[in-house]
Write a structure and sequence with these properties.
With 222 residues, the chain is of the alpha/beta class. The chain has 6 helices and 5 strands. Strand 4, helix 2 and strand 5 form a beta-alpha-beta unit.
Length: 222
C-alpha cells in the first residue's frame, strides 16, 4: 500500500478547499488534537460533497522562551480555529495522567484554553485519555510512543496519512477513533473486539453526525 504525502495545515486565510476555510463553509470536519506546549499534533479530516474526504497533518511547535504563556497558547490555537466548519467534531487527548507539579498545571491550562475555544465555537468534542488512545491504536494501554508511531505508519500511512512524528501519530489515531465511532472505518479488515470496546467505553457527543443531511440510522457504530 503506497504512502500518501502528508499535508500541512495552512496559515489562516488559505485559499478555498484548504482546511483553513472559514467556519461558515458547509463541510464536515473531524479533528484529532494531541496538545502540549512544546509540540501539539493536529490531524484533520475534511469532507465536502461529493468527496472524497481529505486528511491533513501538522505539528505546531512553540518555544519556552515565548512569554507570557497566553502568547504561547495563541500560537498553538491560531492554526486550529480556522479548521472548524459548520459540522465539526474534535477528539482531544486528555492531560497525561502521569504529569505532576508544574508540568501538570501548564498542560491543564493549555487544555482548558483549547476546550473553551471549541465550546465557544459550538464544536462537539470528546476527551480521550492516553490509555484509551493507546489501547485503540495498538491493543495495549501501556504502548510507548515509538510503537504508536510505528503502528500509525504501518496501518494508517496508506489509508489515511503518513505521520512525521509522535505528535502527529497520536493526533491521527484520535481522528481515526472519531471517524470510526461515527461510521467511517479507516483501518482495513474486521474490527478487533478491543477496538470496539474502547469506543463503547467513551461517552461521545450525541448530536454529531458525519453526514448531517442523512438519516442518523444510516450511520453505523462498532
Amino acid at each position: 500500500m503506497g504512502v500518501r504525502q502528508r499535508r500541512r495545515l495552512p496559515p489562516p486565510g488559505a485559499p478555498p478547499g484548504h482546511p483553513a476555510e472559514a467556519a461558515a463553509v458547509t463541510a464536515t470536519t473531524v479533528l484529532g488534537i494531541d496538545a502540549a506546549l512544546a509540540a501539539t499534533g493536529v490531524a484533520v479530516w475534511r469532507y465536502r460533497q461529493p468527496g472524497p474526504g481529505r486528511f491533513y497533518l501538522d505539528t505546531i511547535r512553540t518555544s519556552p522562551d515565548t512569554t507570557p504563556r497566553p502568547a504561547r497558547w495563541a500560537q498553538i490555537t491560531a492554526p486550529i480555529w480556522p479548521c472548524i466548519t459548520t459540522n465539526t467534531l474534535a477528539v482531544v487527548e486528555a492531560v497525561f495522567q502521569g504529569a505532576k507539579g508544574d508540568t501538570a498545571l501548564r498542560l491543564a491550562e493549555l487544555h482548558g484554553v483549547i476546550l473553551d475555544g471549541l465550546y465557544r465555537r459550538g464544536v462537539s468534542y470528546v476527551v480521550v485519555n492516553d490509555k484509551q488512545l493507546k489501547k485503540y491504536a495498538t491493543g495495549s494501554g501501556s504502548a510507548d510512543k515509538d510503537l504508536m508511531l510505528a503502528t500509525a505508519r504501518s496501518q494508517l500511512g496508506g489509508a489515511a496519512a503518513f505521520p512525521a512524528d509522535h505528535d502527529q501519530a497520536d493526533a491521527l489515531w484520535l481522528l481515526v477513533m472519531g471517524l470510526h465511532r461515527y461510521g467511517r472505518q479507516v483501518l482495513p479488515g474486521p474490527v478487533p473486539r478491543w477496538r470496539a470496546k474502547v469506543l463503547a467505553d467513551i461517552t461521545w457527543p450525541s448530536g454529531f453526525r458525519l453526514h448531517p443531511d442523512t438519516d442518523p440510522a444510516r450511520e453505523t457504530t462498532p
